Amino acid sequence: MTSPLVLVVATVVLGAGTFAFRFAGPALRTRVTLSGRAEHLMATSAVVLLAALVATSALLADGEFAGVARPAGVAVGGVLAWRKAPFVVVVLAAAATAAGLRLLGVP
Amino acid sequence: MRSIWRTLTSRLGPGLLRDIVLVCAADGLVGASFGAITVGSGLPLWLPMLLSLVVFAGAAQFMFVGLIASGGNPIAAVVAGLVVNARHVPFGFAIGDVFGRGLARRAAGAHLMIDETVAFALAQRDSDRRRVAFWTCGIGLFVCWNVGVVAGAFGGTVISDTDAFGLDAAFPAVLLALVLPSLKDRSTRLAAAVGVVVALATSPVLPAGVPVLLALAGVLVARGGTPDGPRDPAPTPQSRSEDVT
């Protein structure tokens, strides 16, 4: 098993690196003024990243198909969100669909 | 406590505050499972707590602990966690303006920047609401996540399987609901569609985190598809805030 000291150092390095990633944007933004076009591009990038996260986390687990229950739950939530259902309904319906399907033995 | 709640309700509206509370509660449960799984796999009690305080990024923490627990090299675990977290660089450029001025605020805001806070901030129309939503969601998630991790680490494996509650489906649904209004814009929708295809196609062969970054190719494609045409006239602050919502 990995020694406690190694674990602490590894955790701190991961934390510091993650913070550097997070701080890069806000730190650089105060030095350069972005054009409206660049601002739009940044906002689009964030939306694209979030959309990709939705797709990969809904469909895949460890690079393989995650089974039926999870994508089905996300799909139910997506349809409800598209039909302008309240956020709470969207989230609970997604969870309930996946949990219900698993209860019925669907993977 | 009561007056904080009242202030937040008046600035965010009861609906948005309730949405944020729901996501915080769900995050607390996932935190509890993270604490329980980490300790259950034989790692020390303090490790999940330290990770949650200094890293504060669920996916990277699960990846790190999974690799260490299975006997993996700690350096490989750090690198894998960093690759998963690299998406925070573009996130910071997109919403870095909500943190406000001053080093302390920017540092605190940066640390609270995770998928959910970015999505909640992007979904708000005006800049004041965006700021309040970001900080409320960020502080709420940080507290709930860490409390959940402590509870799970001490409480053991009671709620180690959050899949049974469908929480694994709830989180993509949270992000989807928040991102959906932004997809009304045609060029954003095209960029997202290309990005999703790229991420899904590359996921089986690339390490976690990289496919999501490659999705940014969608931004280039959509931009190439609609060059400086008449669709996108002089970008004013107003048109920008509409684009983002």
Q: What's the helix count of chain B?
A: 14
- Major beta-sheet overview of chain A: 2 strands, antiparallel
Subunit arrangement of the protein: heterodimer
The chain-level structural class of chain A is mainly alpha
The topology string of helices and strands of chain A comes to HHEEHH
Helix percentage of chain A: over 70%
Q: Which blocks of ≥5 consecutive residues of chain A have pLDDT under 50? A: none
Alpha carbon gyration radius of chain B: 19 Å
% residues in beta strands of chain A: under 5%
Question: Which parts of chain B are unreliable, with pLDDT below 50 for 5 consecutive residues or more?
Answer: 226-245
What level of helicity do the residues of chain B show? over 70%
Strand content of chain B: under 5%
Write down the overall mean pLDDT of chain B: 87
Encode the helix/strand succession of chain B as letters: HHHHHHHHHHHHHH
Global shape of chain A: flat
How many domains, in number, for the residues of chain B? 2
Number of distinct beta strands of chain B: 0
Give a quick precis of the structure.
The complex is a heterodimer of chains A (107) and B (245). With 107 residues, chain A is mainly alpha-helical.
Notable characteristics:
A: 107 residues, mainly alpha, two-stranded antiparallel ribbon, 2 strands, 4% strand, B: 245 residues, 2 domains, disordered C terminus, AzlC family ABC transporter permease (chain B), transmembrane (chain B), transmembrane helix (chain B), membrane (chain B), Brnchd-chn_aa_trnsp_permease (chain B)
